[in-house]
Amino acid sequence: MKLNKLAQLLALIGVAGPAIAQEAPAPQMQRVEITGSSIKRIAKEGALPVQTITFDTIRKAGITDTAQLMRLISANGTGADNMTSGNNVFGADADRVSGGASFASLRGLGPNATLVLLNGRRLGNHGGSGKAVDLNAIPLGAVARVEILKDGASAIYGTDAIGGVVNFILRTDYKGLEASTTLNATEAGGGMERSYSLLGGLGDLQADGWNVMASVTHDVNDKLESRQRRFANGFQPERGLSPDTTGTPYANILTGAGTALGTGFKMPGDATTYLQAGLLSLQGKCDSVPGMSQYQTDLWKDVTSPTRTRYSCAYDYGGDYVIGFPVERTTAVSRGTFKIDDNHRVFAEFLGSRTEATAELTPLQISTSLANGNAYPVNGPYYQDLSAYIPSYDRSKPIIYKWRTTPWGNRTQYNEAESYRGLLAAEGTLAGKYDYKVGLSRSISTTQTDLVDGYGYTDKIYAALASGIVNPWAAPGQAQTQQAMDLIESTKYRGAFQHGRTTMTQLDGSVSGEVFNLPAGAVSMAAGFDLRKETYSFGQDVDATKILLSPGNANLDQATRYVRAVYAEALVPVLKDLEVQLAIRRDNYSLIGATTNPKVAFRYQPLQTLLFRGSAGKGFLAPSFNQLYAGRLSQELPNGIIDQQGCAANPGNPAYCAIERLDYNTGGNPSLRPETSKQGTLGIVAEPFRNFSVSLDWWAINIKDRILNRTPQVVLNNYQYLPQYIVRAPDGTIDHVEAGWINAAGLKTRGIDIGLRYDGKVDGYTYAAVLDGTYLDSFKFAEFEGQPYKEQVSQFSTRDIYLRWKHTASLTVGKGNWSALLMQRYASGYNDQLPNGGKGTPPAGFDPRVKHYTKHDVSLTYTGFPKTTITVGIQNLFDTDPPFTAHNVDEVVGAGWDPRVADPRGRALSFNLKYKFF
Asked: Is the pTM of this model over 0.85?
């Protein structure tokens, strides 16, 4: 097969083959616009590393939403940007306002650094976080193909495109009516997925001069709970995993001055002073309550752990998580196109989506205290007397305790997201040789979060606990009294909690065509403009400071910014076999100023079976509204904070060495600078023998001024790098700490994308074997300027895991009305997190390496019935469990397994039926 023929078969990609495409697009010799360029040309001339996934592939793979689709792309990051893990990441990187959303993250650079387009145009960002496009808003049932540009594209598209571009191309000029349904059921139960779609169109654009099409898809996903999967088990001490919490459904008793346990206690014959105790632990019966176990002191050893936990029970709340939210989603798109003449047409397009997702977290964990007035009273009916075990126990004093408040129920949040976009556009040809397009669009995205259960007013909950009516030591099988349940119900808050809204109004246009000839051929150029008005607002519907352990408390009055951009591009045939692409774009942001970003790329084809290509460019990522203007919150750190710099100079001085109630601010930072990048690619495409092609693309990205959210503790621990965020009083003591969003140092990442394809026909059978893989050579990160860059590849991390190797491979065989697909998804292993950061003593059975994960899917498609297509598939054919990891849910959801790497659904049967009425 000649390379030109190969390029036609792999239309719009410029690489050796789509990793998971099962049917190559038919050759199209008309000029088309390729993702990553504004110049239309013959498809086979594309020179950028773009991967194409067809709708036929999506259907045969049993994919029902765009988040699943992104998992098949090796260049996409292995991070917490999906509904399973993205909304349950703890710490500074927690995203508490994107419930029910999923995002793309090419190269693992984060959702903000991946540009998501629909038919080559921008969409509005998610209304909650405002940081990126929610993939759930894409109408997958109307998608014709997806193009993934694996190269930076700020010179063409502006901000967000540092990691690359994902362009969803919808069906156009459709005529007919078809309905389809997909059912996907797991063998082990839970997580059932159902999808129903209808696609219709009237009019033939060429024959009638008009076409109107519309599509609507409705998806329903059932809840999947940790208890439904055997691998979701946070108590495996023989493997180094055990819960690190004493907030148990059967409360543990704490020490404190003026309380029953006093400031500490000793056991008979033991001189050690202990700080916490539980009746079930003293009786050796921790496991009598489901999910509870004796605290494994040796695994979680630190300065206070043995004295705090030796006589305490622990609770595997990781095994109580909801790992798959129940989701109901409706997406719709309609498009009407009118052909003015052979050179001009206008069209209007409307896109709408509505997603409802219910997130569940484990019940509130409360540590009572005398100061908060919620200790258990001496005269309470359930007062627990431990004097039989602890001689110093003083039953004349109240009890303070740590309790997982299961009678309040799971913390449940209802998330509703709606997105709409209207577009009016025209495109065509001027003077018979210049292609143009112009469009005016308006996007709106809104979110609403309601608290459904498990949350309540702090003062009312504390009063209920202090009454003694609620029993924190309900024995197994023992329920709370009706009086207690009525009291608990009276403390709860149910209703609207927070809401967000983004809008984007965009006017864009471009013109392209051949402008003059050189000896090697015609020079093509493009010029365009992009004018946008973007707004974002976020607010609370209730004062979250009054809600105990609320998901957040942030307000952002509507912020507005204007973006004005112009860009130009040229394709210059330097030699007969050498083409150079030059591009430059200047963006001017009303809030952060102007930036100019160039790019140069080349395509050299010395032989019909050999192609070289490469690119170099600069990029930028503008700070989001939330990063700039999220409400600044003033809070206090607890007692005992150490000013390391001041304490070293003033040893023993409590003003530096034991600070009480240190103030800090967190939230947005109006002084943020844009992230900037320099990146490049260098690749080769070859066909060493007939029907076999291979592509290798080396890429590298360097980013400066990375925008990160950092806690006051991190700022204090890195005082030598962040002195500007530690505000000192005239006497040298710390007045307060400025935390939240800051410009950090940067990162450096590089790797190789590999594409293989072998296809052909023998004895009436067609076959295609393809592979898309990414080898990550390095991902180095420096959190602050002056710190050395630290390698992250194959290391556990609480945000993204940068795996050394990922691939998706497939084999398709077809004959007549039958076709079969076998697909494999592989993720390499990595170094596990050591229990308690390595402070403890891992057991002899602990394996410091998380094993690789391999998942196989198979499907069979039959088209022999009139107007009917039937596909039956099995996902996770061998029912492979996620590999074991010793990380605990305090870092990211999933005790004993990791949703960023593996699929928790297990083996599943999918059935797709499509019927075309006409």
From this structure: yes
Identify whether residues 85 and 101 lie together within a single domain. Answer: yes
Q: What is the distance of C-alpha 329 from the center of its chain?
A: 18
What pairing do the DSSP bridges indicate for beta strands 734-738 and 662-666? Answer: parallel
Q: Scanning the structure block, which residue is given the tokens 């991070």? A: 79
C-alpha 386/C-alpha 770 separation (Å) is 67
C-beta separation of 221 from 192 below 8 A? yes
pLDDT, position 505: 98
- Give the total number of structural domains in the chain: 2
Q: What is the helix, strand, coil percentage profile of the chain, to 5?
A: 10, 45, 40
According to the model, what pLDDT value does residue 44 have? Answer: 45
- State the SS3 of 279-301: HHHHCCCHHHCCCEEECCCCCCC
Strand runs labelled E in 844-885? 849-850, 853-862, 868-875
CATH code of the domain containing 451: 2.40.170.20
Q: At what angle do helices 482-491 and 458-466 cross, to 10 degrees?
A: 160
Q: Give the span between the Cα atoms of 316 and 433, in whole angstroms.
A: 68
* 791 occurs within a structural domain: yes
pLDDT tens-digit readout, 827-859: 999 999 887 766 667 788 788 999 999 999 999
User: How distant, in Å, are the alpha carbons of 271, 307, 313, 389 from that of 268?
Assistant: 8, 15, 20, 9
Q: Does residue 502 contact residue 130 with C-beta atoms inside 8 Å? A: yes
What is the band of 83 on the pLDDT scale with cuts at 50, 70, 90? Answer: low
Whether 215 contacts 142, CB under 8 Å: yes
The answer to whether residues 446 and 477 belong to one domain is: no
Nearest partner of 657 among 719, 711, 733, judged by Cα: 733
The predicted structure's pLDDT at residue 853: 97
Query: Which pLDDT tens digit goes with each residue over 740-799?
Result: 888 888 999 999 999 999 999 999 999 999 999 999 999 998 888 888 899 999 999 877
